[in-house]
Design goal:
There is one protein chain. By secondary structure, this protein is α+β, with helices and mostly antiparallel strands. 34% of the residues lie in helices and 32% in strands. The protein contains four helices and nine strands. The strands form two sheets. Strands 1-8-9-2-7-5-4 form a seven-stranded antiparallel beta sheet. A two-stranded antiparallel sheet has the order 3-6. The radius of gyration is 18 Å and the shape is globular.
Length: 152
């Protein structure tokens, strides 16, 4: 088992323009947290959505079944509730409803107290030309670093 669990969603930073970030707790069962502690989770295709009662859920987050679990093992792709303050939930709901923004998970980690946390972001989708610009910037930074390395 690893000490530092840090599962990233690199695709989200490329596909979306990040507006605001929040750190949310996740309501998990026993076998789910054990799988996360073994780094057996994936958040690349996941997104967040509100239900009719105003609760925020992460959908399509994959947590692999625990290897030593029995009949009480969890469903790998079930919806999991995110734990945020009421004020933050209302603000996010307003932003998503009014402006057509979305909520995407950026990072799944375990904090110093041993709780699983999820960094979520209020984001706006990028256009194709913005994505090309991001790739161009990344390539130019890589080339510059390569030149610096060869020069020294």
């Amino acid at each position: 088992m690893q000490k530092n669990i840090n599962i990233q969603n690199k695709k989200a930073r490329f596909e979306y323009e990040i507006i605001d970030k929040y750190t949310a707790g996740i309501q998990l069962t026993g076998t789910e947290i054990k799988s996360i502690r073994h780094s057996k989770a994936r958040i690349t295709e996941s997104f967040c959505e509100f239900n009719d009662r105003g609760e925020l859920f992460v959908i399509n987050m994959y947590i692999e079944e625990y290897a030593f679990g029995n009949q009480f093992n969890h469903n790998p792709k079930s919806e999991r509730r995110l734990l945020l303050n009421k004020r933050e939930l209302k603000k996010l709901a307003r932003e998503v409803e009014a402006k057509g923004n979305t909520i995407v998970p950026l990072r799944l980690f375990i904090n110093e107290n041993g709780w699983a946390k999820l960094d979520v972001a209020l984001a706006k989708g990028k256009k194709t030309h913005d994505k090309r610009e991001t790739m161009k910037d990344r390539d130019s930074k890589r080339d510059l670093a390569r030149i610096k390395k060869n020069f020294n």
